[in-house]
Design a protein that fits this description.
Helix content is 69%, strand content 0%. By secondary structure, it is an all-alpha fold. The two termini are 29 Å apart.
């Protein structure tokens, strides 16, 4: 098709395109309803009775803060990379709070083992973690996918993995508000493991090369 003819066709049939809002505004548009959805689940299930006292303990407050920071930075990375001119380096931003999150729990496990040996590392099946994170993270994940579908990222797999990491990290933050499992080994294996499983599964999905996710 000749250039002049192409211009005529596009001018006659092209529809107006609404540009995406700034990333900061889209991040807020995701976080507010996602956090409200998590709060509703916590309210319905019932917050743990010792919640206020737990936030006064560094072993609980630090990983919770790191989980929340991971969710926010992962969402920022996904929404930023979900633009045609998005920079790939932003996808590495969530690794900073994620490292703090994993490092704190790993340090707790190491300290418990050094202090009392393997008997201080209670471990067993926690069947509530995977369905719990799936339930709490359902709305945040759906909102994130819907927002990412409006973009046109070149790094589709990494972008959707960042988005799901944001949703599952926020879900794990909410899970610990009502699920009274505080043993570092249990949290590290079952809860962080669930976050990793959902994120990796998202990375294994196939997404179309053109158009929307």
């Amino acid at each position: 098709m000749e250039t002049e003819r192409l211009i005529e066709v596009l001018g006659a049939h092209a529809e107006p395109v609404r540009p995406l809002a700034p990333v900061s505004r889209r991040l807020l548009a995701w976080f507010v309803p996602a956090a409200l959805a998590v709060a509703v689940v916590v309210a319905v299930v019932g917050a743990r009775p010792d919640l206020i006292a737990k936030f006064a303990q560094p072993d609980f407050a630090i990983p919770q803060g790191a989980a929340l920071a991971t969710a926010i930075l992962a969402a920022f990375a996904a929404l930023s990379a979900g633009l045609p001119d998005g920079r790939r380096w932003v996808l590495w931003l969530p690794l900073v709070p994620l490292t703090v999150w994993l490092g704190n729990l790993g340090h707790q496990c190491w300290w418990d083992w050094m202090r009392s040996g393997f008997t201080s590392l209670p471990f067993g099946p926690d069947y509530a973690c995977i369905p719990g994170i799936a339930l709490v993270g359902l709305v945040p994940a759906a909102l994130m996918v819907a927002m990412l579908r409006r973009g046109a990222p070149f790094h589709r797999r990494a972008t959707i993995m960042s988005g799901i990491l944001a949703a599952t990290a926020l879900a794990d933050f909410g899970l610990r508000l009502f699920h009274p499992v505080d043993a570092a080994a249990m949290v590290l294996v079952w809860q962080i493991g669930s976050v990793a499983v959902f994120t990796l599964l998202a990375g294994l999905l196939r997404f179309p090369r053109r158009g929307r996710f």
